[in-house]
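Appendix C: a fully annotated inverse folding record. The material below is reproduced so that readers can follow the format used throughout the book. The structure is listed first as tokens, followed by the designed sequence.
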């Protein structure tokens, strides 16, 4: 069994309040859950209005497929949202 995850730090453009940030983060979380079937959550930087740290995770039996699924989710975030990816930390157990 493979446990794989990614901790993604993003800078959210055009976010001037926590309400703006919450709207964007909520959209990202729901999109990734529904399209890529990953476990998702906001894991840090709750008080900053333009920065978020998101966690995506997957459990599977094939390391390559798990990695491809996470990479696809990262690409989706980068292409569909007005955000800049600042840091990506890969976690594997």
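Designed amino acids, in order:
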């Amino acid at each position: 069994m493979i446990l794989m995850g990614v901790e993604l730090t993003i800078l959210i453009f055009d976010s001037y309040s926590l309400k703006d940030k919450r709207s964007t983060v909520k959209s990202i979380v729901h999109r990734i859950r529904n399209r890529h079937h990953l476990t998702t959550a906001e894991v840090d930087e709750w008080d900053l209005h333009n920065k978020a740290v998101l966690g995506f995770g997957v459990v599977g039996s094939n390391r390559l497929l798990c990695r491809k699924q996470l990479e696809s989710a990262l690409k989706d975030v980068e292409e569909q949202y007005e955000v800049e990816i600042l840091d990506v930390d890969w976690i594997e157990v």
